[in-house]
Amino acid sequence: MKKIIAVLSLLLLYIPLIVHAETSDREYIVTFIEDIDWNALHTAKVEVLDSYEVISAVSVKASESEAAVLNDSPRVSTIQESKTYEIRDQQISKSFPMLNITPDIQTVYRGTGVKIGILDTGVDLKHPDLKVNGGICVLEESCTRGYQDDNGHGTHVAGVIGALDNEIGVVGVVPDAGLYAIKAMDSTGTGTTATILAGVEWAIENKMDILNMSVTTDQDDPALKQMIDRAYNEGMLIVGAAGNNGTKSGDGDTVLYPARYSSVIAVGAVNDNQVRVASSATGNSLEFVAPGYNIYSTVPLAGDSFDGIRDGYTYMTGTSMAAPYITGIIAAYKEQFPSSTPQQIRDILGSNVKDLGAAGRDPLYGKGLAQAAMLPVPEGNAVQAKVDNGKVTFTINKSEEVEYVEIVSSKGEKSVIEDNIKIEYVLAGTHKYYFKYHFKDGRTYSVPVSVEVKKPIFTDLSSTQWFSPHMVYLNYHGILKGYKDGGVHPYESITRGEALALVGRAIGLDGEQRSSYFKDVESSYFASGYIQSAFDQTIIKGFSDQTFRPGQNVTRAEMAILIAKAFNLKSNKEVVFSDVGKSISGYSEIAALIDSSITRGFSDGTFRPYQPITRSEFAVFLARAKNADFK
Question: Among 7, 28, 62, 451, which is most exposed with the fewest C-beta within 10 angstroms?
Fold first, then answer.
């Protein structure tokens, strides 16, 4: 007797669509011994959701008793209850608070436009948490796999610097930086003077802003020093791991090369308690320290056996892990001050440290624990906020040295503010905004602004929904009103009567309830006045039987007709949607909405004219027709 397989909850690195049944039925996966037995499915009276011909299987919705009937069919191989999959939540590094990498800083300074070379064992090109912009393999032996990492060290370093902010795994210090893999070390983590020279030379030729070198040797290498000095003099910042050969007591000058050279920023490692890791190198050339103990980051997916969990992530310890934190912080400063020289960036970094150990610079901690910082904007530049329920008006003051100002979302998305006023429509709650001032000399400064909004409050609307600002805008202007249950029902289809009420309020029609031309619209109907006013102005005609059918759902084509006529939108251009021919009712009005930037259709090139439109979708189109800022 076959058994129904129990539900398991697994964590994987992707986001599935999870359907929650509204009845006691459950979703099952049914596999068949040979072909799909459609007669057995019909006999069991189950609802087939999808089929998978390749493996002779279907997904069905069924009760336990129906599943049991199906399970007894001789042609059924297995029945399993559909499993639930979830994403692994993205982890924020435990080291970020130590380094003062706050949400404010990382929201605005994400390494945009900064090129970072990672001279190491390569980077895993298939890791879902990393984006590699380019690179090179400079090994003397074969580079058959290009700059693909076959060791793990380089990928771990890359993750600390710039793992993507994509809701999985980890996030790097600067997730938007351009990462370039320079494979100068082989699968054993070994390179030569020749390979390192070639790697640094490539970084110079390809104009890297920063070069991370989590590689060490205990011998002076004059040729390498000359090449690194050349890179530094041409404007490149070079970050090097100080080495893991320190003594427990911290005695002696043990900083290794190339970190020991003055043109390289030598980085030591501290633990979670901000105490030097016992193996971290010490000496007068040590410049900064950063977290380097049990650092969780990316490793190659293929052959991931570092910690017994094949997931592409693991913990590593050492100054090699500390150096990329400094590289990331420098990238954030470089983004803020792109024209600064390497020495100026080092000075900024040196003026923002947490002093550890003996006062001032010392051989154990250098200048101290590096700190990210958002430097205050120069005088004459500020942002004031005025809150009026769901409408927030920002006044942006800027000096003559400012070229333009951007508003930056919490995910780093940016848009330029065209004038000195910016208006946002939001629900009740605390909202954070970031204004990024771009100076004519290339400097940027960020101004974070928090606002507290008291209303509106809708039980079924949140700020994370993309259409929320449009619905709040319409509500603020008295166009969209909520229901008695406190919601706005954004996913419900909108009726013809509701649509007329919204449009009528938007264009200022007379909404006083009264008798109308249509025999199915009584004077007591809430939208009777708007319907009659729209009829009087020939915005609507109704049906040939003198009905309006106010309770009937509005289609997308009807929406286009209504909005185009209400706002007098016209166009002579042809419609480009594959499912909208010239013979379709609403063809010219759909063209008008396209020409007015009110609609772009769906990504598959369709408009879906006969599909009912939801309240939220209608609100978006109406807000765009009413206010160009929403286009």
Answer: 7
